[in-house]
Write a structure and sequence with these properties.
Blueprint (H helix, E strand, L loop, with lengths): L6 E6 L5 H17 L3 E4 L6 H10 L1 E4 L10 E4 L6 H9 L3 E4 L3 H15 L3 E5 L5 H7 L6 E4 L16 E5 L5 H14 L13 H13 L5 E5 L5 H12 L5 E4 L15 E6 L5 H13 L4 E6 L11 H9 L12 H7 L1
Parallel strand pairs: 1-11, 1-12, 2-3, 2-4, 4-5, 6-7, 6-8, 9-10, 9-11
């Protein structure tokens, strides 16, 4: 340990998940293959740095499908979209690249399946979040959205024996399970999804924070304010013993006053955060006396996802090789160095 007694606990895993890596690479490869501009509906992932960096390379981000010129190429974000959005794209003769995370697509398929089987579906998630809007759009006549345990009493179903819950993939595991517990109190025969909806990366990052939090005077979570999983990480840290904590987009938001009397700082990052932003935070901390870094490893992640099918086909036809997984945002990192 440094002479000052100051140290950093660095979470592993942290940062990019396989779905984010796939989505960002999809935009990068589309720009390389087709040339700029490539339109992107909503933020490809919820991170300011990523969005700004891709915009500099020629991506144009829009809020709605009707903002994309007819016949243009458009990428759908990792959070997924409803069938209505696909229909709008078809009506405008757009060329879509669907970068929806496969784990979100799984939830979409579950919603469609259980709606066809005439279940009432309780979707645990945050109203207005793009992922929740996309999932809801697959079965609006059967889905009710519940944001937290306190909203469970508002749920109304046709048959209490034919109810199933699904979940936004980026929730706090503990809060989601408390909501499910409350649901089961009301509906004892509540059905569970065929497999866990909260994604592996969300669970793994929260698990690492739970291990670190009791040892931390301060927890720094790198991630944007509209990133659900990043916001949840800070909540999990404070709920599990961290004395204080802050979420920042990057090192330039750190304030020296936060660290008065702080010996041990925990550092982690949300699933849409490139590693360069974490490295810049570590450098800032090192410059302020936190030079002893201990990596806290709680899980190893080896999951990768292939690029969207139509993009893969066009890359193959052009003689390009698909490259994905563990890129750590190399292209954008290089631009920022």
């Amino acid at each position: 340990m440094s002479e000052s007694g100051k140290k950093i606990l660095l979470a592993a895993p942290r940062g990019y998940c396989a779905g984010v890596d796939r989505a960002v690479e999809a935009v990068e490869r589309a720009l390389d293959l087709y040339g700029a501009p490539v339109y992107v509906r909503k933020e490809i992932v919820h991170n300011k740095f990523v969005v700004q960096s891709l915009a500099k390379k020629g991506a144009i981000f829009v809020d709605q499908t009707d903002e994309v010129p007819e016949g243009a190429r458009v990428v759908f974000s990792a959070h997924g979209v409803s069938p209505a959005v696909h229909q709008e794209a078809a009506e405008r003769s757009l060329l879509p690249i669907d970068a929806t995370c496969p784990l979100v697509t799984k939830v979409h398929r579950e919603a469609v399946r259980f709606a066809k089987e005439d279940y009432d579906i309780v979707l645990v998630g945050h109203p207005g979040h793009e992922e929740v809007e996309g999932t809801y759009g697959h079965a609006p006549e059967r889905i009710q959205i519940v944001a937290n345990p306190d909203e469970v009493d508002k749920v109304e179903v046709r048959d209490p024996d034919k109810v199933i819950w699904l979940s936004q993939t980026t929730l706090s595991v503990d809060e989601a399970m408390e909501t499910v517990r409350r649901l089961r109190e009301r509906f004892p025969n509540l059905n569970d999804p065929p497999s866990d909806d909260i994604c592996y990366a969300t669970q793994n990052r929260q698990g690492a924070v739970k291990v670190m939090a009791p040892k931390c005077d301060m927890m720094i979570v790198v991630g944007s304010g509209n990133s659900s999983n990043s916001v949840r990480l800070l909540e999990v840290a404070l709920e599990n013993g961290a004395k204080d904590g802050h979420r920042v987009d990057g090192a330039d938001e750190l304030e020296i006053e936060w660290f008065e009397g702080v010996k041990t700082v925990g550092v982690t990052s949300g699933a849409s955060v490139p590693e360069i932003l974490v490295r810049e935070v570590l450098q800032w901390l090192s410059d302020h006396g936190y030079q002893d870094v201990e990596t806290v490893v709680t899980k190893e992640e080896k999951i990768t996802f292939s690029l969207p099918k139509n993009l893969r086909a066009d890359l193959k036809a052009a003689g390009e090789v698909e490259v994905h997984a563990d890129r750590n945002f190399k292209n954008l990192n290089h631009q920022s160095e």
